[in-house]
């Protein structure tokens, strides 16, 4: 076998192909020690909830031997599940993944120390203050461990949720900083927690760290009954959900039931015309038992 005739072995997939797809993408690995793995995924129970997440480096990044810039994190505090997805700014392709990785964990840590989600809506300033502390911690970490970098070099957007289930109902506070997405799925029907911005999805109006990190924070309380599912995404996946009925149907079908690690990876293997950026999704299935309804307010 010659180098010209050699092709890598791949696994078959049932994921859809939507639109006029580009061909000729290469998979070239970034060799920088600060790179993130091409695929990161999880699936399992967290308290009363089931959580599955996956982050896959986009074809555009792989083609140019660039690391992915997305990350996610989650933790359990008492009866609450805290989760976040983050997306490093594309203008800093060599370093923003450092900020995304750290910010996801710092956000979960700070938000988990506030109060129960059932009380959060009445203590909005506590939530906002926690985001401010996470931003300060991120900036301090950069100054301490990478003094050669400026805060903008590790800037990231984020979406997060804190969810607690009591009896047959779950309450969540869902928030975002920048252009990440947050959705619910109820009986196959999608609902966006936040209003879609006009124009391209990836226009960044807020990020961490920032001189005013709390200025662009959006927060909503979400009440979940039954089998409603919470979905956090980075911007490329959010754009596919907003723009493509085929992708919405595919994802809703795949996420009808709690997903394993490998099921999550397979779910994000779809191809869509123009969708070449990183894809990250974190999905939470609350352990509740009534007919599914989700009210966003």
Helix content percent band:
10-25%
- What order do the SSEs take from the amino end to the carboxyl end, as H and E? EEEHEEHHHEEEEEEHHHEEE
Could you tell me the mean pLDDT? 87
Task: Please tally the β strands and state the result.
Answer: 14
Question: Any idea of the CATH topology?
Answer: Phosphatase 2c, domain 1
Side by side, the strands of the main sheet go 2-3-13-11-8-9
Share of residues in strands: 25-35%
Number of helices: 7
- The N- and C-terminal alpha carbons lie at a distance of 61 Å
Low-pLDDT residue intervals, each spanning 5 or more residues: 288-297
The computed structural class is alpha+beta
Q: What is the H level of CATH, i.e. the homologous superfamily?
A: PPM-type phosphatase domain
* Count of separate structural domains: 1
CATH class: Alpha Beta
Describe the overall structure:
The chain is an alpha+beta fold. The chain has a single domain, classed as Phosphatase 2c, domain 1 (4-Layer Sandwich), CATH 3.60.40. Helix content is 25%, strand content 31%. The protein has helices spanning 59-63, 96-112, 117-120, 124-145, 235-243, 245-254, 261-267, and strands at residues 17-18, 39-46, 49-56, 70-77, 80-88, 156-166, 169-177, 181-186, 189-192, 217-225, 229-233, 271-272, 279-285, 293-296. The strands form 3 sheets. A 6-stranded antiparallel β-sheet has the order 2-3-13-11-8-9. Strand 8 (181-186) and strand 9 form a beta hairpin. The longest helix is centred in the middle third of the chain and has 22 residues, at 124-145. It is globular and about 65 Å long. The model is unreliable at 288-297 (pLDDT under 50).
């Amino acid at each position: 076998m010659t180098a010209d005739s050699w092709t890598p072995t791949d696994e078959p997939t049932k994921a859809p192909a939507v639109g006029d797809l580009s061909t000729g993408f290469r998979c070239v690995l970034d060799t920088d020690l600060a790179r993130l793995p091409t695929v990161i995924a999880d699936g399992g129970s967290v308290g009363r909830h089931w959580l599955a997440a996956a982050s896959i480096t986009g074809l555009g990044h792989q083609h140019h031997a660039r690391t992915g810039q997305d990350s996610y994190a989650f933790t359990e505090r008492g009866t609450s599940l805290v989760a976040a997805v983050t997306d490093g700014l594309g203008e800093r392709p060599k370093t923003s993944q450092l900020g995304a990785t750290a910010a996801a964990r710092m956000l979960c840590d700070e938000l988990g120390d506030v109060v129960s989600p059932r009380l959060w809506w009445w203590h909005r300033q506590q939530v906002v203050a926690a985001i401010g502390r996470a931003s300060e911690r991120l900036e301090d970490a950069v100054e301490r461990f990478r003094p050669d970098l400026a805060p903008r070099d590790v800037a990231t957007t984020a979406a997060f949720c804190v969810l607690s289930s009591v009896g047959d109902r779950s309450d969540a506070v869902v928030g975002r900083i920048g252009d990440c997405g947050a959705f619910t799925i109820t009986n196959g029907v999608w609902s966006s927690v936040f209003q879609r911005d006009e124009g391209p999805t990836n226009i960044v109006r807020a990020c961490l760290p920032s001189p005013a990190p709390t200025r662009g924070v959006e927060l909503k309380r979400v009440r979940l009954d039954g089998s409603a599912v919470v979905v956090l995404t980075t911007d490329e996946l959010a754009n596919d959900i907003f723009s493509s009925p085929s992708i919405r149907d595919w994802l809703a079908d795949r996420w009808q039931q709690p997903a394993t690690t490998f099921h999550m990876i397979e779910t994000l293997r779809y191809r869509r015309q123009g969708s070449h950026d990183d894809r990250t999704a974190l999905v939470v299935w609350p352990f509740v038992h009534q007919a599914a309804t989700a009210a966003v307010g």
